[in-house]
Amino acid sequence: MMEEPISLREVLLKLKLIAFKVGKKWVLILIFSLFGAGIGYFYSRTQKPVYRAVTSFVLEENTEGAGGMAQYAGMASMMGLNLGGGVGGIFQGDNLLELYKSNAILRKALLSKVEFRDSEQLLIDSYLKVTNLRDSWKGSHLENIKFYLSEDSLRDRTRDSLLISAVEDIRENFIIVDKMDKKLSIIQVTTLSSDEEFAKLLNEQIVETVNKFYISTKSKKALDNIIILQRQTDSVRNVLNGAIYATAVSADATPNLNPTRQVLRTSGQRSQFTAEANKAILTQLVQNLELAKISLRRETPLIQIIDAPIYPLTKQQLGPRKAAAVGFILCAFLITSFFIIKYILKDILKSE
């Protein structure tokens, strides 16, 4: 025989009965909820606040007048010159976001000098103080370990291991890098710490390290060209000055030149020819040097800081009242759900 379907009226009656039974447990539910509120209250009182330091900025390249620069680049390429080009890859899309959390950048930031609590020290030493790691090393072989400002310093396995551990901890727990909006190119770097001063210093140092790396990489090719062209220009100018001086010396040596003695003209003519040739070369080199300087100015990106961290930093902390309310509601929901499920299962087993 087929079982008759349960009507809506029967479902509502069962729900009413379950609600009635759960309501009879209101004293137990209230006690459990108050216990949860107490846990939330004392938890919030024991937790240190977390400070947020946020920097938002735009990395913008100057692309105006690309047509004009294309003409310059074409002229330069005919002379065998490379005026420099942009470095794409690593600075595009999500690659740039990952750059802020890379080992190389975080190592450089940690090994840079900062002013922390009125004393100049490495950022890594500030990190050890904030995390109380330095205190936990007392009495061990790590107590007097020193870090160095330069990464080219003598390598040490223990020191490098500690530095790598610090980098991983900062990447996982101290820094967040993201775009404010997927449609915008505004990058937001956020650092979190229970120490307000360290949160701000860490944020500023990481942003400064990446920005320096970005600018130096983007303008490296153009800067190398300028150095080479400047060296060539100075060399040709010195040769030209020497040729001009030699022409003057030759003229002074024969003030009353005999027109029939052409051999006496040879030295002066040779010096004059050398001077004219080097003058033409110098003119071309100066033009190329100016084009390279224009390229350098265009290849140097513009970093527009929109917001920088300032005191007082935003504090993330669940207040005692809010924590108590969350604990109360959460525990009330859990104990009520427990009783509802218990009565539903009991009713199912009874009907079977």
Q: What's the story with the biggest beta sheet?
A: 5 strands, antiparallel
Helix content: 55-70%
Class from secondary-structure proportions: alpha+beta
**Fraction of residues in β-strands:** 5-15%
- The run of helices and strands is HHEHHHEEHHHEEHHHEEH
Question: How would you describe this structure to a colleague?
Answer:
With 352 residues, this protein is an alpha+beta fold. Helix 2 (26-46) runs antiparallel to helix 12 (320-351), helix 5 (103-110) packs across helix 8 and helix 5 (103-110) crosses helix 9 (196-218). The chain has helices spanning 8-23, 26-46, 66-78, 94-99, 103-110, 123-130, 133-136, 157-173, 196-218, 220-253, 265-299, 320-351; strands at 50-60, 113-116, 119-122, 175-179, 186-193, 302-307, 314-316. The protein is elongated, with a radius of gyration of 38 Å.
What's a quick, concise take on this entry?
The chain is of the alpha+beta class and about 350 residues long.
Topology overview:
Blueprint: H1 8-23, H2 26-46, E1 50-60, H3 66-78, H4 94-99, H5 103-110, E2 113-116, E3 119-122, H6 123-130, H7 133-136, H8 157-173, E4 175-179, E5 186-193, H9 196-218, H10 220-253, H11 265-299, E6 302-307, E7 314-316, H12 320-351
Antiparallel strand pairs: 1-5, 1-6, 1-7, 2-3, 4-5
Output the keywords.
352 residues; alpha+beta; five-stranded antiparallel β-sheet; two-stranded antiparallel ribbon; 12 helices; 12% strand
